[in-house]
């Protein structure tokens, strides 16, 4: 429901800006595109002394914003390439598109292996690696539980325990068989269901960054619905400022700022997709052991890493693991840092973020 509202608001926004009207160039004509997309907004930034060209789209059921910092306006063609790349991955990975490769794998569960493109094979391999690393707190075979709860859809409801038990029995990443020679994927039980929603945006962001660099741009910000990936450093500045959303604010205000360069920041929290019943909030981060949305001391978590696919998988994994085990996991990994926001409004950061996080909302408390 919330997602529907967001789509509506975004479309109205684009329309009010005139970007969905008939005045577009051929490349950006909304009639030819399966998704909403803005034209460029261009501004000269005094602090960076660069021209910032920004375009937005609505893809992956979220708002995508790309800002390129360069000497002059970045041409439409670079944004065409980026949004086409996202559309290509969406067609490959989406569990909601019936002929995507992921849907083909799901339809063939218990039946036959499916041959997939290298990209998807690698992504599934990485998903399994993170499932192992988090001892199953992160599990890309979570689909039967996600389908049952329906969080983010009109059908969201608390399931019967018999339904939960049945779905739980179909969630186990050990039953995903990868053949590294033939690049096939096999879910070895009927009704298993892959869901790459917790890792794919990070992977796609990394691919967008590679494309931007390949095209010769060295400074940019990629934002896939709050998954932020920096390309290079902020020109003429010490750092990019990335706002950390206050999980208790409906309007999306920031409670603090991370000051970083060439990093990825991915957040997961109870505010993203949820419904409430009898005063209980049921959000979309599901514990694969209990089958329920994970209820712990956390409201949200942000992961800072070099590569966004790592941050995306870890943000979900660490949320489900909770502060203690999550902190331990993050500390065991090189180049990965975390920020935990607890329901008692304490914020915990790992050592590498101490000098990089600035709290701006003093109703929260920074503890170490
Ligand atoms: P994250 O924390 O990164 O991921 C949470 C999501 O991962 C949950 O929504 C669930 O799907 C899954 N998950 C929950 N618990 C676990 C767990 N323990 N381990 C592993 N995974 C878990 N949304 C739509 O509403 N409609 C669409 O058509 C649609 N298409 C999409 C297509 C693609 C290719 C992608 C990448 C996303 C799409 N989405 C769509 C959004 C998607 O369903 C997720 O809601 C979104 O990716 C979650 O990202 P997040 O950053 O909010 O949370
Ligand atoms: Mg994630």
Automatic annotation (TrEMBL):
Superkingdom of this protein's organism: Bacteria
Biased segments, Basic and acidic residues type: 40-49
Membrane topology: Lipid-anchor
Location of region: Disordered: 30-49
Keyword Acyltransferase: no
InterPro entries on file: ApbE (IPR024932), ApbE-like_sf (IPR003374)
Required co-factors: Mg(2+)
Catalysis performed (reactions): L-threonyl-[protein] + FAD = FMN-L-threonyl-[protein] + AMP + H(+)
Signal sequence segment: none
Main localization of the protein described in the UniProt heading: membrane
Keywords for the protein's UniProt record, in alphabetical order: Cell inner membrane, Cell membrane, FAD, Flavoprotein, Lipoprotein, Magnesium, Membrane, Metal-binding, Transferase
EC number in record: 2.7.1.180
Subcellular location: Cell inner membrane
One Pfam family it belongs to: ApbE
Keyword flag Cell inner membrane: yes
Function per UniProt: Flavin transferase that catalyzes the transfer of the FMN moiety of FAD and its covalent binding to the hydroxyl group of a threonine residue in a target flavoprotein.
Annotated family: Belongs to the ApbE family.
Protein name: FAD:protein FMN transferase
Organism of provenance: Fusibacter tunisiensis
Lineage: Bacteria, Bacillati, Bacillota, Clostridia, Eubacteriales
């Amino acid at each position: 429901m919330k997602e529907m509202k967001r789509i509506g608001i975004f479309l109205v926004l684009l329309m009010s800006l005139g970007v969905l009207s008939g005045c577009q160039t051929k490349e950006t004509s909304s009639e030819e595109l399966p998704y909403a997309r803005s034209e460029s907004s261009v501004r000269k930034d005094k602090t960076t002394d660069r021209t910032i060209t920004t375009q937005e789209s609505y893809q992956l059921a979220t708002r995508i914003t790309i800002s390129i910092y360069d000497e002059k306006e970045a041409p439409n063609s670079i944004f065409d390439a980026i949004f086409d790349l996202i559309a290509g991955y969406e067609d490959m990975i989406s569990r909601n598109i019936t002929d995507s490769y992921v849907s083909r794998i799901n339809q063939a569960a218990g039946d036959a292996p499916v041959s997939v493109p290298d990209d998807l094979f690698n992504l599934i391999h990485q998903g399994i690696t993170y499932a192992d690393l988090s001892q199953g707190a992160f599990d890309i075979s979570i689909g039967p539980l996600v389908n049952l709860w329906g969080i983010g859809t009109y059908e969201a409801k608390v399931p019967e325990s018999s339904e939960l038990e049945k779905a739980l029995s179909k969630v186990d990443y050990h039953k995903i068989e990868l053949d590294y020679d033939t690049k096939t994927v096999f879910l070895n039980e009927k009704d298993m269901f892959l869901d790459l929603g917790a890792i794919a945006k990070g992977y796609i962001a990394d691919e967008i960054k590679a494309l931007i660099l390949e095209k010769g741009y060295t400074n940019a910000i990629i934002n896939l619905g709050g998954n932020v990936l920096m390309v290079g450093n902020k020109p003429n500045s010490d750092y990019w400022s990335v706002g950390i959303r206050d999980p208790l604010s409906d309007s999306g205000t920031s409670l603090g700022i991370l000051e970083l360069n060439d990093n990825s920041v991915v957040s997961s929290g109870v505010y993203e997709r949820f419904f409430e019943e009898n005063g209980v909030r049921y959000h979309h981060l599901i514990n694969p052991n209990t089958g329920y949305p994970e209820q712990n001391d956390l409201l949200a978590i942000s992961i800072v890493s070099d590569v966004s696919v790592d941050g995306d998988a870890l943000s979900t994994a660490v949320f489900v693991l909770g502060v203690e085990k999550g902190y331990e996991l993050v500390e065991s990994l090189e180049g990965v840092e975390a920020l935990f926001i607890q329901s008692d409004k304490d914020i915990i950061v790992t050592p590498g973020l101490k000098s990089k996080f600035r709290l701006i909302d003093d109703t929260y408390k920074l503890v170490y």
